[in-house]
């Protein structure tokens, strides 16, 4: 009786990486690291909070805040991997509209 081995997607990926001279180990890599101090953030002068602020618990609360110097976003894209039957185009358009509004409200320029 012969045993048949079927290729899994992991086998294919592993072979692909090996073709490029990379190898996959089942053991995690141990590295030396350090925790960086929390950077301070300064919002725009029209924001609710003023001055230099230190985020709490690693979180910046951007609700109602505007960045000091917003970046200009010349081009961007959104990719939806949901099957069409589970995500209507109207829902995607609504999401994009809200995303653009939130970005402009926080100081991003030229998003639309």
Provide a descriptive summary of the structure in words:
The protein has 112 residues and is mainly alpha-helical. It has a domain at 70-112. It contains 2 helices and 2 strands. A two-stranded antiparallel sheet has the order 1-2. The longest helix has 17 residues, at 89-105. The radius of gyration is 23 Å and the shape is flat. The model has no long low-confidence stretch (mean pLDDT 80).
What secondary-structure arrangement, pairings included, does this model have?
Elements: H1 9-19, E1 41-42, E2 52-53, H2 89-105
Concise summary:
The protein is mostly helical and 112 residues long. It has helices at 9-19, 89-105; strands at 41-42, 52-53.
Short key terms for the protein model shown above:
flat, 2 strands, mainly alpha, 112 residues, two-stranded antiparallel sheet
- The whole-angstrom Rg is 23 Å
**Fraction of residues in helices?**
25-40%
Helix/strand class: mainly alpha
What is the residue-averaged pLDDT? 80
How are the strands of the biggest sheet laid out side by side?
Answer: 1-2
- Give a quick account of the main beta sheet: strands, pairing sense, barrel closure: 2 strands, antiparallel
Low-confidence segments: none
Q: How big a fraction of the residues is strand?
A: under 5%
Oligomer designation? single chain
The overall strand count is 2
**What's the helix-strand series?**
HEEH
Give the termini separation: 64 Å
How does the overall form come out from the CA principal axes? flat
Report the total helices: 2
